[in-house]
Amino acid sequence: MSKTLHHGLLILRLLSEHPGGLTVADIAERIGVHRTVAHRLVRTLEAHQLCRRDHHRRIVLGTGLVTLAEPVEQDLRTLARPLLDELAEATRATVHLMVREGAGDMRALMVVEPRGARVHVSFRPGQTHSIEQGSAGLALLAVGPPRDGERPEVTEARTQGFAVTEGEVIPAVIGVSAAVPTHRGDPTTSIGVSVFERAGVEELGRTVAATAARLGELLG
User: Fold this and answer.
1) For all residues of the chain together, what is the average pLDDT?
2) Is 3-68 a CATH 1.10.10.10 domain?
3) Radius of gyration of the chain measured on its C-alpha atoms
4) What pLDDT, on a 0 to 100 scale, did the predictor assign at position 216?
5) Do 110 and 96 contact (CB within 8 A), yes or no?
6) Above pLDDT 90, what percent of the chain?
7) What are the residue ranges of CATH 1.10.10.10 in the chain?
8) Given this model, what pLDDT does residue 73 score?
9) Which helix (H) or strand (E) holds 104?
10) Which residue from 35, 49, 103, 114 has the highest number of Cβ atoms inside 10 Å of its Cβ?
11) Cβ–Cβ contacts within 10 Å for residue 155, how many?
12) pLDDT of residue 117
């Protein structure tokens, strides 16, 4: 693969993890290149509006990324947004739409936080974790046939229609997720909520599963 392109993409990922910005020296050290190389890479990304310098001259992500990201799963996000808003307000919890990425990862495509809730979980879209970790991935694994050595949570999710995990993606946070059904192969998307208490988790799971089913119907 192209080492230059690889380093440029590493910079974008690095900046996404440091919204407060980084200096060129910071970037060079973190991606393992000479400062002169990092400077050239940053200047190239700046020319395409993929990064910029803030008022402290630190490098931050640029608005050009918005244009690139907009078409990604646009239909899915457009159809899901009102359902996620409704679910967030009904449960007073943070709602997430997760998509399978490759063979073994889940990525947060959308995150909706409840308005007016005194306390809620907060995390950013774009975060990834293993499909074997957290309720979002286990909900997708539960749609498939039983596997030797599968987690008990997957077996249980296959029976009840939603998966529940605790403290696997965010410490002390309980995830409740259901797969979005599809008529086009195996499901690759799940809807879930993040809460702090197990009280009423069964009812919460049924609500999440119903929302996932509604999105599946809209997607056809």
Assistant:
1) 90
2) yes
3) 20
4) 92
5) yes
6) 63
7) 3-68
8) 65
9) none
10) 114
11) 14
12) 67
Angle between helices 24-31 and 3-17 (to 10 degrees): 120
* CATH 3.30.450.40 domain position(s) in the chain: 74-219
133 CB-contact burial (10 Å; exposed 0-12 / middle 13-18 / buried 19+): middle
pTM, rounded to two decimals? 0.71
What one-character DSSP code corresponds to residue 39?
H
Q: Which of 122, 105, 110, 126 is nearest to 17 (CA)?
A: 126
Q: CA dihedral defined by 7, 11, 12, 14, rounded to 10 degrees?
A: 130
- Pick one of 3.30.450.40, 1.20.120.1200, 1.20.810.10, 3.40.50.720 as the CATH number of 74-219: 3.30.450.40
Longest alpha-carbon distance in the chain = 57
Q: How many CB atoms lie within 10 A of CB 40?
A: 16
Of 25-29, 68-72, 141-145, 164-168, which gets the smallest average pLDDT?
A: 68-72
Q: Give the torsion sign (CA, 58, 64, 67, 68).
A: negative
User: Residues 43-73: pLDDT tens digits?
Assistant: 999 999 999 998 888 999 898 887 776 665 6
